[in-house]
Structures are given as C-alpha cells and as structure tokens.
C-alpha cells in the first residue's frame, strides 16, 4: 500500500543538506576579528576572505555534478575503447568534459540567480547572497566552457567537441528555461545530462553506434530517479522558486515515486544490453544484477512509503550508482 508518511519540516532538511550556510556565518567571526583592531588579525581576515572567494567560485561550478559528468565520460570512453587504451584521449575527454560542465554550471547559476534567491536551499549560493557578481560569474562560466572545448578539440576529435557544445547549449538554452514552464523539464534535461557519456564513447571510437547509444540510455534513465527523489525532498522550495517540478503538485507523492520506480526498472534492464548484444562478460552481468537489486530496493521503498528519508536514500544510491557502473565496466575489460 502506498502511503504518505509525516516528514521532517523543510527547515530540518535544509539545515541538514545546506550545512554550508552555517559556515557562511563566518562573517560573524570576521566581525570579531575586526573588533580586535589588531593589524595581524586584519591580515588574517583578508586571507580568509580570499579563501572564501575561491570556495565560492568552486561552488559555482557545481562540483558534484561535474564529478558525475566526468565519471560518465569515462564510462562512455571505456565502453568503446580498444584493448590498447589511448590514455591521452581519455585524459583529454575527462578534462575537457569536466571543464565544460563546470562552465555550464556557473552559467546556470547566472541564469537562475533571481529564482535561487527565493529558495531556502539555494539562497546562500554565491550569486543570490551577493558574494560574487553576476558579471564575474558569467565571465567565469564562459571561460571554463571555452577552455574545455579548447582541450577537447586537439586531444579527442571534432565529434566529441561538438557533443560538448551541444550539451552546454541544450542545458542552458532549453532545459534551464523549461524548468519554470513544464513538469516535463526533467525528461528534457536527461538529454544534455547524458550526452557526456556519448562524448566519451565518441572520443574512443570517433563515431556513434548502438553500443554508445546503449550507454547513453543508461545515463538518461539514471537521471530520472536521481532528480525525482531530489524534487520530492525539496518540493516546497521548488514551489517558492517558481519551478514546475512533477513533485510540486503531487501531494501524495504517488506520481513522483512511481515515475522514479519505473525509470529505475528501465535503467536496470538497459544495463544488461552489453551482455546480451555486445559481448560483455558474465561477471559484468553479475555486477549489474547486484547493483540493480541494490538501487531497485531504494526505489521500491520510496514508492511504498513516500517519505523524505526514503527519497534521500534513493538519491544517495543514485549518486553511488554511476561510479559503481564504471567500476563494473573496468572489471569487465580486465577479464
């Protein structure tokens, strides 16, 4: 039976997930330093300010997303690479993809700064809080994207670079504005979110074929339980920010949790494509079966009882799923 349990208040969740907000309270400590009036302490305060700026710029890049994007590009590359791996191309696709992802993240912060200011979860970000100016963030984002493309072009191939450019364009020009217009934005967002794995595959092979598209499909489907669980946890915050998420008007959570479960089932099924059609070893199939049961357990729990605890559990497992998927591919290549 599907039931909706009582959940902690949004305030509890926000404090738990945005502990960095408390650290931003270091301004109070800066005030204490200033009150001392000592030259040595003023110097220390200046040093802390410079360090905070570096942290803020790193935050603009959405490092957690950039990490997962980098991992997915490795998965794509290894899925298509020959036994004699081109390590320069692998390093190039990893560096270039992470840089373009980081740049897109910074530009997304720029585009959504007004809406982020309305949400408790994002109000402390560098732009809404005023710690970084919009112009500086935009310049930073464009620079990272340009450097990323400049790395991809000579170290991989034109197709990989073109896919990276397409990823940034779809993410910023299509997905970002759709987040406030339709609940189907999550489905649209899976395309730029999964293109890095196709870019990795293209870097290894120079083309796109059914094996590359199978890896692409895994990443498309993986994003759905990841974002549906996140959207459920912060549905009230998304409403405040004016975002059209599936969970915003889903009071019981039945639609959101069912969508998360269905996409998880589909993802697990697609992960067996390399074994069925592309000659992956039985060891790979065993690893995918174990990973599949592990993440299905979380999706089923979320569907049966739509609570913040179960949503967070599913979210965490999706985060660990992609690195584990890459490890399974590496293990398969070693056999």
Key words describing this protein structure:
16 helices, disordered N terminus, 0% strand, Tetracycline Repressor, domain 2, mainly alpha, 335 residues, Four Helix Bundle (Hemerythrin (Met), subunit A)
Total count of strands: 0
Helix content range? over 70%
> What's the number of structural domains?
2
Mean pLDDT: 86
What amount of the residues lies in strands?
under 5%
CATH class of the largest domain: Mainly Alpha
Query: How far is the first residue's CA from the last residue's CA?
Result: 44 Å
Oligomer: single chain
If you compute it from the alpha carbons, what radius of gyration comes out, rounded to the nearest whole angstrom?
Answer: 21 Å
Poorly predicted runs are: 1-52
Provide an overview of this structure.
The protein has about 325 residues and is mainly alpha-helical. It has 2 domains: about 60-210, Tetracycline Repressor, domain 2; about 210-335, Up-down Bundle (Four Helix Bundle (Hemerythrin (Met), subunit A)). The chain is built from 16 helices and no strands. It has helices at about 10-15, 20-25, 25-35, 40-60, 65-80, 85-110, 115, 135-155, 160-180, 185-205, 210-235, 235-240, 255-270, 275, 280-305, 310-335. The relative contact order is 0.11. Residues about 1-50 have low confidence and may be disordered.
């Amino acid at each position: 039976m599907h039931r909706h349990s009582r959940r902690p208040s949004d305030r509890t969740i926000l404090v738990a997930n945005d502990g960095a907000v408390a650290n931003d309270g270091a301004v109070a400590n800066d005030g204490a330093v200033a009150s001392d009036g000592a030259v040595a302490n003023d110097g220390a305060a200046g040093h802390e300010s410079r360090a905070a700026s570096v942290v803020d710029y790193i935050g603009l890049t959405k490092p957690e997303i950039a990490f997962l994007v980098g991992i997915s590009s490795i998965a794509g590359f290894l899925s298509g690479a020959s036994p004699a791996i081109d390590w320069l191309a692998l390093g190039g696709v990893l560096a270039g993809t992470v840089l373009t992802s980081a740049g897109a993240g910074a530009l997304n912060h720029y585009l959504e700064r007004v809406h982020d200011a309305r949400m408790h979860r994002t109000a402390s970000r560098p732009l809404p809080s005023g710690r970084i100016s919009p112009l500086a963030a935009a310049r930073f984002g464009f620079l990272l994207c340009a450097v990323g493309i400049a790395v991809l072009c000579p170290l991989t191939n034109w197709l990989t670079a073109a896919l990276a450019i397409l990823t940034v364009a779809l993410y910023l020009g299509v997905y970002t504005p759709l987040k406030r217009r339709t609940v189907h934005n999550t489905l649209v967002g899976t395309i730029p979110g999964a293109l890095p794995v196709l870019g990795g595959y293209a870097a290894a092979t120079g083309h796109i074929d059914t094996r590359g598209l199978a890896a692409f499909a895994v990443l498309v489907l993986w994003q759905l339980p990841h974002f549906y669980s996140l959207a459920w946890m912060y549905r009230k915050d998304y409403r405040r920010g004016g975002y059209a998420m599936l969970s915003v008007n889903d009071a019981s959570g039945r639609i959101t949790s069912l969508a998360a479960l269905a996409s998880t089932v589909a993802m697990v099924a697609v992960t067996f494509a390399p074994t069925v059609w592309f000659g992956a070893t039985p060891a790979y199939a065993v690893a995918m079966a174990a990973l599949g049961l592990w993440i299905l357990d979380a999706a089923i729990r979320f569907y049966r009882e739509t609570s913040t605890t179960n949503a967070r559990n599913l979210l965490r497992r999706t985060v660990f799923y992609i690195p584990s998927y890459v490890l399974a591919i590496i293990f398969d290549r070693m056999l």
